[in-house]
Amino acid sequence: MMNSNTLRLKLVITIAVTLIFFTINVNSVYAADCGGLTACNCEDTLIESYNMTENLDCSLASSGLIIGANDIALDCNSFAIIGPAGGNGIETYTPNRTVIQNCEIYNFANGIYSQASENVTFYNNTIHDVTNGINILQHENWASITYNNISTADYGIYLDRAYNGDIVSYNEIYSTGTGIYAEEIINAQINYNTIYDSDYGIYIYNSSACNILGNEIDNILYSGILIEGDPSGMTTPVVPGGGGICSLHTVSGNIITNPAQSGNIGGDPEDQHGGIALLYERSCILQSNIISDTGYRGISLYKSENNSILSNIITNFDYAIGIWVKADESDGVGGYNTIAGNTVNGTGCTGIRIAAPNNTIANNIVEGDGTFGCSGWGSDSTYGMALWDCSYEENNTLSNNFVSGYEWGLYVYEICDLTIAGDEYYENDYGAYLDNAGGCSSGDDILMPIFIDTIIHDNCEGLYMTASSASISDSDVYENNCLSSPGGGSTSPYTGIYMVDSTLYLQNSNFTDNGNYGIYEFEGSTSVYWILTEDVYCTNNDILILDGAIYPSGGSIIADNCEISVAGNILNFSAGQTGMYAEAVNEGTPFGSESYGVTGDISTGAGSYSGDLIVNFYDENPGASGYYLESLGLWIDATLDPMPADLTWWLLKLYYTDEVLALAGLEEDSLQIQFYNETSGTWYVEANQGVNETGNYVWANLTHFSIYGLYGSLPTIATPAVTPSGFTPSSGGLLPEEIEAISDTETDSTETDTETATEEVSFEENKEPFLFITIFVLIAGIGAVMYLPKIIKSPKNK
């Protein structure tokens, strides 16, 4: 018989075994297979498709449900799976063709976690209060993630190493760190999602060929869409599972409002984003996006190349930059982008800012509101388009842009190689402003900003140049006057072009109705060299050139209420004066320029002469008539100030063009320099002179200063041969008296010989027909001789 202690021990053991058995049974329920008609509990593995009929509370489990076979469809029927603040709500690892739909999932690390699975579909799920809403890792083929609602997560949708055409569309994502994050993915379609109240809207890293279309993104702390490549992969193509440069993305039709609400979030350029940002990118297309109310930048390209920024609208930004392009000389990355057809308007600091080489900026409309105030990032100035930092911002082209409503329509600082073609700058304080621009040597060339067919009008100041060099051709500068412009410019007098310590190379161009001056050289070492190849207009403003030239080369200035002064000399249009050249001359140093029609040198007995050369150009004879030969239509009046008393000689070269020579119809080798003696009123041919037909100039070695002109002979016109009436050449050739008779007529031997040669060639070409006729006649004659007697003796003829 057992004692009581033994019984107690057996009871304890029995209770313990029962508890252990119960615990094992409970755990076995949580780890079972389920699906089909078998209900699923937390941590179960689905081996058949399943429709949930109630909520699944997994707050005391480590995870929710596991997909354990291919071709499984889980429909939660809007019931919830509630997590323990960790684990995965629904997990699929390696199974393919999984469908998860109509689930509410919350309080997990990952709402839905999929790894190494193919052809998965996640549809119409509501996921919130998780670390990652949907997390897809390492799959080769297609995932469809559509119509999900995801909130309160670090990442709404997280794609990592997905290589073939994921579709992420029509999802609503909000209150996240990043709405959609994708790393090392290829050919993804991220379309028509709604993302708001997040740090980043869409963030693509080190990926290729994604289409990001039609998304609506609002109230973003940093970037609405950020696409970033691996800096180390800028020379390496993107490959699945490896590094490489992001490339070939298309970002189109997205609407992004209130991005970059943090403003300038850091000193590192990589941290300064906005509506759409590309970092280390190549060959992407950003097109037809609308970005508004950005806190810092609308579109930002940093160290990115060969991208196309097309037809975007960026509007309503207070202290931001509409489009910003930045390269880095240290690694040579960035540039060769096309920024075209965009509209940038609002109250921003800068419409388009370029700090990279070899970009094309074309057909953009950049409009400020004319308030001329910028705040928030260390500058109170506003710029329509700005380029500076000469070290690496070279060889950019601006064409057919329209810029208005800024303090500086175009601002160029320390830029050498820049082309502006067809742009229009209007209603700015300064239409364009060049500061320390141009004048850079490149081999034998001097690089500088070049304006072609540019229109600058209705600004306070048209073009302001300080310590700069520029070239302007075939442009129109008109109605620049603070009295009618929205700005309040500080410079007076108001001008079309205002110059300080600058050099301007000007071809053609019109200056009309500017405030005081069309061109005004204010002070310092300033020069204007103006070539006229066609007629131009100067109307209701004056031209003041302290040093330089106006050179007519087939064109002239049509002046109306316009006084033009070069080096203190006023052009006399009524006397036929068309231009003027002024230059400081030092003995032993050649003066002038082939471009402006005059070069030369001077020698005096002292050997150290210095003075000022003034050359006036005329298209009408400034002297009396009576010159020899025909005029080329170019006269000059050359003087030195002071005139050297011991002039030994001076060399003058007058240049002409083939076009001017052809228009005058003169023989090139007959050209000569004649001078006008004002005392005698007579023209004389310079004795010591010649023509350089290769260099297109006539030179003369002179000992005086005077009025000079270029003259030449018309070509000799040949006349046709005339045969004297009644003249018959003898068979033995021409008699001496006959030769004399022909010589007395106006016979052109060359033309006569040509005609004779033509006749001889004509006979040679027709020898065969004549030979045929001759043979025919000969045969006919022989036949007649043979048959004529028989015909005569015939009875019919008796």
Description:
- With 798 residues, the protein is mostly beta strands.
- 11% of the residues lie in helices and 44% in strands.
- The protein is built from 5 helices and 75 strands.
- It has a 40-stranded mixed beta sheet that branches. The protein has a 26-stranded mixed beta sheet.
- It starts with a helix and ends in a 5-residue tail after the last helix.
Shape: elongated
Number of helices: 5
First-to-last CA distance: 189 Å
Percentage of β-strand residues? 35-45%
User: Total strand count, please?
Assistant: 75
Helix-strand makeup class: mainly beta
Largest sheet: 40 strands, mixed
From the alpha carbons, calculate the radius of gyration and give it in angstroms: 45 Å
Mean pLDDT over the residues: 82
Query: Which segments are poorly predicted (pLDDT under 50) over 5 or more consecutive residues?
Result: 11-30, 236-244, 485-489, 721-778, 784-798
- What portion of residues is helical? 10-25%
